[in-house]
Design goal:
With about 100 residues, the chain is α/β, with parallel strands linked by helices. It is built from four helices and five strands, in the order βαβαβαββα. The protein has a five-stranded mixed sheet. Helix 2 (about 30-45) links the parallel strand 2 (about 20-25) and strand 3.
Length: about 100
Amino acid sequence: MAIIVNDENFQEVTNTNLPVMLDLGATWCGPCKALAPIVEEMATEYEGRAVICKIDVEEAPGVAAQFRVRNVPTVLFLKGGELKDKCVGAVAKQTLVDKLNALL
């Protein structure tokens, strides 16, 4: 399962040498709901190789502001605490896989 991240645990969860994929969305967002099963699949597939997280932007406004997220869904890819890549909008699983694999 993807790790649920909020403003309080963001630093702790993302303080890792593993690549981190952050799915920022909202409960009212249709495209976010469509992306959710893909994120969960990837959390299982990448267990031990990457950290896959879900963030509700309404519950973690600090994280959303830190990365200047204006639209949801937005998927961010971090390595060593730095933003390396991102996707905005509902995208195909292969797009997310390719971006995450580039950081492995």
